[in-house]
Amino acid sequence: PRLFIDAPLSASAAIPLAREDAHYLINVMRRGEGDVVRVFNGRDGEWSAVIAHASRKGAGLTVADQTRPQQGVPDLWLMFAPVRRSKTELIVEKATELGAAVIAPVVTERTQSDRIKFERLQAITKEAAEQTERLDLPELRTSEKLAAVLDNWPDDRLLIFCDESGDEADAAWGGARGRGQPMAAALAGAGDRPAAILIGPEGGFSPAERDRLRSLQHVVPVTLGPRILRAETAAIAALTIWQSTCGDWR
Ligand code: SAM
């Protein structure tokens, strides 16, 4: 088992476990005193630890030695318009598993449900990071309006705009760019520039938002194929294409 410990790790001090972590180790993973656990905190890499004591009153770990800190995959952000709660949670969980460094809900004109349960989503990133054996937690941001995000867009970062529009985009781009390039082609051309993926809400982006996005220097409209995908499918597909195209761990 592997635990995210939100505290500095050191070989000297024993670490008391939070209740939910003690429950997970003892009752879910059926571990006990003397068993080895791996712990990480997103700063110190990964350590192996031994369960020093475990009882109904709680558990504590003695940290042994540090193993290799994992190389981070390149810095990718996932920006998405919040959708129905269960689907938003799915997007956050899969973005954590697929290596997003930042997960940023953005409120667009057609976003239905702009309220997100931040603490719940944060807990999901922690569980997903433990399960997927990441050595860091993604940074989860609070919701922000797309317009404000674009006003402060960092110059060096590519914005991969997953645009499902068809004829409208063709007309606007004079057919020059069509639906936008297939995402893998767009990424191949981007080299190892930091990137962000942008996914719209159930109702898609408004024409005004599309115009605004097209006006940005470093926006690359991409298509994820000829069919209209649900937002959560599009997020998972785009992250997977990014990971298989750009992940420097290959
Ligand atoms: N406007 C769409 C419609 O006409 O039904 C629905 C939007 S879709 C459910 C949600 C988001 O997923 C889109 O805004 C886009 O970001 C992404 N998406 C879905 N299918 C896509 C595709 N084939 N290519 C690129 N992005 C896609």
UniProtKB/TrEMBL annotation:
Species this chain originates from: Maricaulis maris (strain MCS10)
Location(s), subcellular: Cytoplasm
Root EC class: transferase
Residue span(s) of domain Ribosomal RNA small subunit methyltransferase E PUA-like: 18-59
Reaction it catalyzes: uridine(1498) in 16S rRNA + S-adenosyl-L-methionine = N(3)-methyluridine(1498) in 16S rRNA + S-adenosyl-L-homocysteine + H(+)
Protein's name according to its UniProt entry: Ribosomal RNA small subunit methyltransferase E
SUPFAM superfamilies registered for this protein in UniProt: alpha/beta knot (SSF75217), PUA domain-like (SSF88697)
InterPro entries referenced in this protein's UniProt entry, alphabetically: Alpha/beta_knot_MTases, PUA-like_sf, RsmE, RsmE_MTase_dom, RsmE_PUA-like, tRNA_m1G_MTases_N
Record keywords, A-Z: Cytoplasm, Methyltransferase, rRNA processing, S-adenosyl-L-methionine, Transferase
Alphabetical list of PANTHER family matching this protein: 16S RRNA (URACIL(1498)-N(3))-METHYLTRANSFERASE, RIBOSOMAL RNA SMALL SUBUNIT METHYLTRANSFERASE E
GO BP annotation list: rRNA base methylation
EC number: 2.1.1.193
One cellular component (GO) term of this entry: cytoplasm
Recorded family membership: Belongs to the RNA methyltransferase RsmE family.
GO MF annotation, one: rRNA (uridine-N3-)-methyltransferase activity
